[in-house]
Predict the structure.
Amino acid sequence: MKFEINSYQDYQKEYQKSVINPEGFWAEKANEFIWRKKWNNVLSWNFTEPTIKWFEGGKLNITENCLDRHLQERGNKIAYIWEPNNPNEKNIKITYFELYTKVCRFANVLKNNGIKKGDRVCMYMPMIPELVVSMLACARIGAIHSVVYAGFSSDALANRIQDTQSKLLITSNGAYRGTKQIKIKTIVDEALKKCESIKKVIVVKRTDENISMLTGRDVLWKDEEANVGDTCNAVEMDAEDILFVLYTSGSTGKPKGIVHTCAGYMVYVDYTFRNIFHCSQQDVYWCSADIGWITGHSYLVYGPLLSGVTSVMFEGIPTYPDAGRYWEVIDKHNVNIFYTSPTAIRALMTYDIDFVDKHQLTSLKLLGTVGEPINESAWKWYYKHIGKEKCFIVDTWWQTETGGIAISPLLNVSYPKPGYAMHPLPGIQPTIVDGTGKKLIGNEVQGQLCIKFPWPGMLRTIYNNPERYKQTYFTDFPGFYFTGDGCKRDKNGDYRITGRVDDLIKISGHLLGTAEIENAINSHHKVVESAVIGYPHPIKGNAICAFVVPFKTSENPEQLKLEIIEQVSHLIGPIAKPDKVQLITELPKTRSGKIMRRILQKILGGETTHFGDTSTLINPKVIETLVKENIKEFQLNNNQH
Ligand code: WT7
C-alpha cells in the first residue's frame, strides 16, 4: 500500500503541494482509481453561493473501486471478520470475492424491488454484514443510502425517512446488544405508520424473535436473495451524484441530512485512511464505531475497502460479556490498528485493570480515537495499558460534514501530545477566527475553527435544504466553511480542538442539539418550556441537564421528571436522555426572548453570586429564584442517596 506521508519532510512536501496547487494535488490522487471516464475539471467552487464541485464530468462507480479492482489480486483475502455480540457464537469471515458476490446479488434484489438510480434507500440495522452489503448494493446501482443508527427511536427514524422520501427500508427482526435483545422490527413498524414513501421493507433475520410481516410490503432478505444472479453491472455515476445522506444534529430541532457525493468522498476517504492508519496489506484493522455514524461509513466501510484491507466488524458492546471484550477481540483476531472513541476508553478505565492485563495486546501497532476531545488521563491510560507505550495514537478531528479526517497526528511526523489533534491533513487549510470574524494569524491563538478552501470530502449540501446549508456553514464567517468548534493553535503551531461553540452538545461522542431535546421535552403536555445545557461528565464527556418549567410545580414532581426523561427517549432515543431534570418557575431570558444559557450553566456549577452582565435579562429577579431552586434540588438529591 502506498503511504505518501512517512516523515515530517513528506508531510511538508504534500501539504505545500496541496495548498499551492490543490487541483494538481487531488488530480494526482484521483488518478489512482478506476474511472469509466476521467473528469473535465478538477474543481469549481465558491463559498458564497455556496457551490463545490470536484472532478466534474468524471464517471465512475465507487463499488468498482472497493470491490471489482481487488478481485484479481486479493479476491481470496478477507475483507471482514465479523465478531458477533456473543463470543460463543461463531465469527464470520468474508473474502473480497464473497463480498463482491453478496453485493451483486443484493443489488439485484434491490432492482427486483423497484429501486433505480437516484432512489433513496434507508437502513435501520444492527452491526451485521448485511448492513455493509446493503450500502454497497445501493452504491452499485446508484441508489442513495441513508443509514439511521439503530439506537434512534421510531419517531427519529420516521423523521429521517420522511426527509429523504425513501422508497425502501432494510432492517432486521431484532438485534443483540450485550444481554439485551432489541425489537428492531417493532420500532420500524411504529415508524412506518408515518412514512408513506416506503413501499418495501426487506428484513434480515438476526435473532430468533418472531415478527409480523405486512403482506405486500415486507419481504425476507433470505427469500429475496435466493433467486437472483451473482453478477450485477455497476451503474455509471457522475462524480457529483449523491452517494449517501447521513443525518446529524443541528442547532434547530430538525436534524440535517448531510450529502456526500461519489468521487470527492472516495478520493478523500482513501487518502486519509491510508496516511493516517498506515495499514499494510497484512494488517488487521478494527474501527469500533457503529456504521450509523460517519466514522463507520468512512473508516469501516469505504476507507478500508478502497485499500483492500482486512477489517474487524463488531456487533456487540465493550462491556459484554465483561469489560475486557475489546481486548479479547484484539487478541483473537490479531488486530494491528484499533480506532475507537474517548467515551469507550473512559468507560473501560473505570474497571479493574485485570480486564486489560489478562490479554496480550501484542499485535497492536497504532491506536486511534475520534468523536470528541480526549482528556489527558484517558489518553495516558490508552497509551500505557493498551498501547504498552509503543503504539502511536492518532486523535483524529473531523465531522460528518468533512467526510473524512481533517486534523490528526501523523505517524512518523508528529510527536505524542495528549489532547492535540496536531496537524491539518494536506488539503485542509484551517483558519482560526475571533468572534468578530477577524483572522487570527500566527501561533498562540484561540478562537473558532474555519476552513478556507474546499477539500474533496466536504459535504455538498443539506438534503432538501440548500438555504440551511448556506446559513449553517457559510454565513457567520463569509468566505469560510465554519465548523462550529473552538480551536487553539499553540506556540508550536499544533492544533487543539476545545469543543463546540454553538448550541450542540457532544454526549458519548454523539452530537445532539439543545433545540432538538428541548422540542422533545416541550411536547410533554405538562411542560411550558425548557432549556437544555451540557455539563462535564467523567465518562460521557458531557451530560445533559434540562431546566423545565411545568404548568404546575406542586403535583408529583419526581413522577414528572421521569416522564420527561421517558419522553426524550421516546422521541429521539436513549442517547439523548437528560441526566438531570430541574423543575423551575421561570427561565432566564433576554428581552428578545433568547434563553441565557450561560446563567443556567453557572447555576448548575453551584454559582450563587457572580453571574456577569445580567442587564439584558427581562426579569433580573429570576436569578435569585433559580439559585434557591438549585439549592433545594441539590439537597433533595443528597437526601435520596
Ligand atoms: C464533532 C463532529 C468525526 C466523526 C465522528 C463525529 C467533535 C470529533 C474530535 C476530536 C475533539 C472532536 C467536534 C466535531 N470531534 N472528533 N478528535 N477532538 N472533538 O462526527 O457527529 O459529525 O461530530 O465532533 O466537536 O465538530 P459528528
User: Anything to note?
Assistant: Residues 504-640 form a domain with the GMP Synthetase; Chain A, domain 3 fold (CATH 3.30.300.30). The mean pLDDT is 96.
